[in-house]
Structures are given as C-alpha cells and as structure tokens.
C-alpha cells in the first residue's frame, strides 16, 4: 500500500461521495499522515459543489477506526505531540465542517478518535456487531477529537459522563439505546444502508441541504430566539434560490425536480 492512499475518495453517481479510511494493517489507527490525508480529502469534498451527501466508511469490516496510533505516539517527545495536535484537529474538524450531510457507516470497532470521526458526522449507521467507546481516560488522556463536546450534545450530560469517565465500550444495541448511534443494521450491512440513505438525501435540493445543515449547526448552542433568527436567514437564502423555484414548479407539474 502506498502511503498516499490511507484515506481515499470514492464516487457514487454524481452527488454522493465516500471518504474511505484505508489503513487495514493498523485497523485504521490514526497516524499523523492519515490525519493529514483525512483533513485534505474532507476539504476537497467541502469545496466540491456537486457533492450533496458524504459517507464515511472503512475499507474493512473488523474496524471502522480504533483511534489514535498509540504506537506512533509512544515514541513522541512532548514537542512532537504538540506539533501533531493541529494536524489531528484539522482531520476531525474537516469532517465536522462538511457543509453537506454526512453519514458514518460503522462496522467493527469505533474507539476513541474512531468514534469521534463518526460523531463528527450527522447520522451514524452501524452493524449490530459493532463496538464503540471513548476509552481515552484509561490511557491517561481525554477525548480530543471533539468527543467531550459532540457526545454530550448528542446524548446529554449523564450518559456522556458515564461513557467517558468509565472508558466503557458499548455494543451496537447499547449505543443505539443511549443515542450514540442512530441506526443498527445486521453486521456487514452498514455500508449499504449508509449509501442508500446518502442517495435518498442526495435526491433533495442541494441548496436546501446545505442551508438546513447550516441552520441546525449554527442554532445548536444559542438561545431559541437567536436560533430562530439563524433559521430565518438560512430560509431566506434558500427561498429565493433557483432550487426553490424548480422545486415548486416540479411539484405543480407532478415530476421529479431537476435541481439547478
């Protein structure tokens, strides 16, 4: 395997793109180079206006991603660890900043930074044999790829606290019960389910999808009145677009829209 294909992009039709984590010999453990590639590939998709939905997946079923490459970090000096930090932050942040809906397809282990990549997506689909967790405190660190913030926002303080403080791993069913993941499918079917969902999403207005996600993300941590103003601004940006005109016209003509 060449080192420039640790994360690759695959296309599905005209509007669905897939970020594939492809370091199977290390169960997709996130090395510095892999983090750099994840940030670069995510930025490439963010700039591609033809993309309407992104799937994030693994090239193999044993693990979505087992988190940081601790073998690499074991040899780091403090200065080297600090130098790596902006690289890893850019990787997780790149997935989180995707302007279109993102769906994680999780099979096998999604631990530490691996779960944080999934949590950076909008929807998480996993196979029923998947195992997820944020075990960082068991090795003397804390979740640093957004886990303390994203998990708490997703499941609430008490469930996030129990999971992070205990470093406990959850089965797919437990993760679904607690709201960590959104859909559980039979083992081996997460990729197909995530792609089917992405294709359904991508059939919708590209302007609507981007502005709906923007309104949801920007309004998440503000008071209701401010959130409604955020929503109104995003509504205006959508309502006076060519997409809205085509959507209404297609509805009246009883046909599928052809988005501009």
TrEMBL record:
A GO term for molecular function: enoyl-CoA hydratase activity
Keywords noted in UniProt: Lipid metabolism, Lyase
Enzyme class: lyase
The EC number(s) this enzyme carries: 4.2.1.17
Gene3D superfamilies: 2-enoyl-CoA Hydratase, Chain A, domain 1, Lyase 2-enoyl-coa Hydratase, Chain A, domain 2
Reactions the enzyme catalyzes: a 4-saturated-(3S)-3-hydroxyacyl-CoA = a (3E)-enoyl-CoA + H2O; a (3S)-3-hydroxyacyl-CoA = a (2E)-enoyl-CoA + H2O
Domain of life per record: Bacteria
Record InterPro entries: ClpP/crotonase-like_dom_sf, Enoyl-CoA_hyd/isom_CS, Enoyl-CoA_hydra/iso, Enoyl-CoA_hydra_C
Record GO biological process: fatty acid beta-oxidation
Similarity comment: Belongs to the enoyl-CoA hydratase/isomerase family.
Name the record gives this protein: enoyl-CoA hydratase
Biological classification of the source: Bacteria, Bacillati, Actinomycetota, Actinomycetes, Micrococcales
């Amino acid at each position: 395997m060449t080192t420039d294909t640790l994360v690759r992009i695959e296309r599905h039709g005209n509007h669905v793109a897939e970020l594939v984590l492809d370091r199977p010999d290390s169960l997709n453990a996130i090395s510095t180079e892999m983090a750099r590639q994840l940030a670069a590939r995510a930025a490439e998709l963010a700039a591609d206006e033809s993309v309407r939905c992104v799937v994030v997946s693994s090239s193999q079923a044993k693990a979505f991603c087992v988190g940081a490459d601790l073998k690499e970090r074991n040899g780091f000096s403090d200065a080297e660890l600090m130098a790596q930090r902006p690289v890893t932050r850019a990787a997780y942040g790149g997935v989180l900043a995707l302007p279109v809906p993102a769906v994680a397809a999780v099979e096998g282990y999604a631990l530490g930074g691996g779960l944080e990549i999934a949590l950076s997506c909008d929807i998480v689909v996993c196979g029923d044999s998947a195992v997820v967790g944020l075990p960082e405190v068991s090795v003397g660190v804390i979740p640093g790829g957004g886990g303390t913030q994203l998990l708490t926002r997703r499941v609430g303080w008490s469930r996030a606290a129990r999971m992070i403080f205990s470093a406990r791993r959850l089965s797919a069913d437990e993760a679904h019960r607690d709201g960590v993941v959104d859909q559980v499918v039979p083992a081996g079917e997460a990729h197909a389910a995530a792609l089917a969902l992405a294709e359904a999403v991508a059939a919708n207005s590209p302007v609507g999808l981007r502005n709906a996600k923007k309104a949801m993300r920007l309004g998440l941590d503000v008071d209701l009145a401010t959130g409604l103003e955020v929503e109104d601004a995003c509504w205006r940006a959508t309502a006076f677009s060519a997409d809205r005109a085509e959507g209404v016209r297609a509805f009246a003509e009883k046909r599928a829209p052809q988005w501009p």
